[in-house]
Each structure stands twice: as C-alpha cells, then as structure tokens.
Write a structure and sequence with these properties.
The chain is an alpha/beta fold and 353 residues long. It has 13 helices and twelve strands. The strands form two sheets. An eight-stranded mixed β-sheet has the order 6-7-8-3-9-10-12-11, with helices on both faces. It has a four-stranded antiparallel β-sheet with strand order 2-1-4-5. The structure holds adenosine-5'-triphosphate, iron/sulfur cluster and magnesium ion. The site of adenosine-5'-triphosphate (ATP) has 17 residues, from strand 1 and helix 2. It is found in: Cell membrane.
C-alpha cells in the first residue's frame, strides 16, 4: 500500500478516534447463519448464504463486493424487507432493544422501520414520489410514525439538508424532477436520519455524487453518526468509500462473507485473495493509476455460483483441489482492534497486522 493511501486511512481513522464515544442508545446487531433465497426458473437459489456478522454498538461497518454479491439483499434482511420472489430461509437478525426482526410482521415491523432503523435504499434518488413535494413526503413520514412535533421534524430536515450543502427550504418545496440525482440522494440520506433512528442502513448512499460531494457527504455521515450515537451499516461497491467512513469492513462475494476485520488492517494487509484483488483494482488505494490492476473474470450469478467448495475459485490464482469440494470455513483471529475473520483454504498462517 502506498504512503499516500496510508496517510488518508490514518487521517480518517484519527478523525474517527477523536469523535465522541458511542452513547448507549446505539444498538448492537447480530446476524447469525442468515440465508436468503430467490425463486428462479431453476428453483430457489441463495443470494446470501450462511452469513454471520456482528455490528458493534456505535460502530460504522462497511460491506463491499462487486455487483450481485448479495449486499442489498443482506441490507434488506436487516429490515426484514426482502420481498417475493425472495425470502429469508434461515437465520436470525437480533437487534438490541428490538429482538429478532426476522419474526416481525405487520405493525410491529412498520414501527421498527423508521423509528428504530433508518435506511436509504439503493437508487434512493429514484424512489421519491414524483407527485408530492419532498416536504409533503417528509410530513407523511412523520405522521405515519406518530411524530407529534411536525414543525420540529421540518426544522431537523432543513438542518440536515443544510449540512449537506443544500437549501433546505427550497428542497422541501421541490418535486423529485426539480432535483438533480445527487440532490435526491442527499434527500434520501436526510429521510434516513430525520426520525432519529439509532440503527442506520445506507445502501450505496453516494453513487450519484461527484468525488468532492461524496467526500463531504461521507464526512457528514460520520459526524452525525458520532453526534447521535448511531450504529451504521454502509453498503457500497466502492472500497474507497469504506476506507473513508467505516471502522470495520466486511467483504462479500457470491452471497458469502469472505473476509471481515478492522478497516485499516484489512486494507493494509488483506488476507483473502478476493479482497486483495479488489484493493489492487482501485487507483485511489493503490496510489498510482498505472499500478491498478482490474480483477480478471466476472462475478457469478445466482445460477453460476458454485454450490459446493469455494465461491471464488473460478477467479482465484491460489486455487487448490480442496477448493473445488470443501467450503472454506470462517477462521477467527481475535485482535486488539477486534476480530479478523477469513474464509479461505490458503490462509493458514496468522498474520497479525
Ligand atoms: N427480485 C429478485 N429476483 C431474483 N433474483 C434477484 C432478485 N433481487 C436480487 N436478485 C439476485 O440476487 C443476487 C444478489 O443481488 P443483490 O441486489 O443483493 O446484490 P448487490 O451486491 O446489492 O449488487 P449491486 O452492487 O448491483 O447492487 C444477484 O444475483 C441478483 O441477480
Ligand atoms: S479457498 Fe481456495 S479458491 Fe477460495 S479464495 Fe481461498 S485459495 Fe482461492
Ligand atoms: Mg445492491
């Protein structure tokens, strides 16, 4: 890793360490043995398979992986919002103060979303109601969650929009078509934060933004996270976004979590061949555009993902016979900064970073 990217990572880590300690409202989340399947012409196939992930109270966790790796499906599971033809087939999602949301239905589920779990769905910039102003949609959101102080809610929304560089009053008076993609994306982030939920899930929150606006928005996400004592999950295909914002990093491939650990350690010394490939492909992290190397091959689909053995083997330079038949189990190393978890037959030596 180059000096420049080391510096960037050190700076963002220092900023996070200087932030206020997490308050006790921040809930912990424990996802255990989660499998989510979609019905296809070839039968029910898993998009997320046997995933276990803990979000520590007050932490920001980033999930990265290429398109189709199952990131959004995992995010939707946190809200128990996987829609047919999908369903959670096994596993649990335990949220402190709420319980296992996989069993939630109806009113209980609706209340949990919004009040306890704020979220921005992927492509939030396209999910506003085209017929209503943003302000009207904000009031609808407040009323549907029993907010008494609607003036306070509007004040809060304007404040959040202002922090993200927008004229809050103007945005609230606007319809979707009057706002740019980047503006709509910021409206999505405002709607995720405005009800004061303490668990926040952001699925590709900055894809429609240019680099400078993206950096500003990530800074605000970090600030709001620390000020309010949140537990935050950020989903992205851009490992640079995670480097900016997350305390812990989880890497997904073919519906599996292949590596997890403290962001700084994983980026500085990735262990799984897929994580190494992802990092090598990012000029911003490698430090030099000429050194960046695209990962060969393409990620699998639900139909082509191997049913047994390692899901990454078709693209792996370290592939061995055992990789074709035996699923690599997650191996946990407890480190001073939290556990490092890797699922790969080739990673046998402890490399404490
Ligand atoms: N409604 C659906 N019906 C069938 N298959 C689906 C459905 N939604 C997602 N999938 C499949 O599940 C897998 C995981 O999709 P998911 O959207 O969770 O991936 P992702 O990592 O969020 O990708 P992206 O980076 O493109 O957003 C993909 O193979 C996708 O084609
Ligand atoms: S388990 Fe085998 S195929 Fe999979 S990443 Fe490790 S070495 Fe490569
Ligand atoms: Mg997605």
């Amino acid at each position: 890793m180059s000096e420049r990217s080391e510096v960037t990572i050190k700076q963002s880590t220092a900023a996070r360490e200087a932030a206020a300690p997490p308050r006790k409202e921040a809930p912990g989340v424990r996802i255990s043995g989660l499998t989510v399947v979609y019905k296809t012409p070839a039968g029910e196939l898993p998009a997320v398979r046997d995933v276990s992930l803990t979000l520590e109270p007050g932490s920001i966790t980033g999930i990265v992986g290429e398109s189709g790796s199952g990131k959004s499906t995992l995010a939707l599971s946190l809200l128990n919002a996987v829609q047919p033809p999908g369903r959670i087939s096994t596993g649990s999602v335990e949220i402190d103060g709420l319980g296992d949301v996989v069993g939630f239905r109806g009113e209980r589920l609706r209340k949990a979303r919004g009040q306890h779990i704020g979220y921005v769905f992927q492509a939030a910039q396209n999910s506003l109601n085209p017929l209503k102003t943003v302000g009207k949609q904000l009031l609808d959101l407040g009323r549907s969650h029993g907010v008494d102080d609607l003036r306070g809610l509007v004040r809060e929304a304007k404040e959040l929009l202002g922090r993200m560089g927008l004229d809050g009053a103007r945005v609230l008076d606007s319809h979707q078509h009057e706002l740019s993609g980047g503006m709509r994306q910021r409206v999505g982030i405002m709607l995720a934060l405005v009800l004061n939920a303490h668990l926040v899930v952001l699925d590709e929150p900055t894809t429609a933004l240019d680099m400078i606006t993206q950096a500003n928005i990530l800074k605000i996400v970090r600030e709001v996270h620390a000020e309010r004592g949140l537990t935050t999950l950020v989903i992205t295909h851009d490992i640079g976004v995670v480097a900016e914002v997350a305390d812990r990093l989880a890497v997904m491939y073919g519906g599996r979590l292949v590596e997890q650990g403290p962001t700084r350690q994983v980026l500085a010394a990735p262990r799984h061949p897929y994580t190494r490939g992802l990092i090598k492909a990012i000029p911003r992290l490698v430090g030099d555009i000429d050194e960046a190397q695209a990962l060969p091959g393409r990620p699998p689909t639900l139909v082509t993902v191997p049913k047994e053995g390692c899901v990454f083997r078709e693209r792996c330079a370290l592939r061995m016979d055992v990789c074709d038949t035996v699923d690599p189990q997650a191996r946990v190393d407890e480190g001073a900064y939290g556990p490092r978890i890797v699922a790969c037959h080739a990673v046998t030596v402890k490399e404490r970073a």
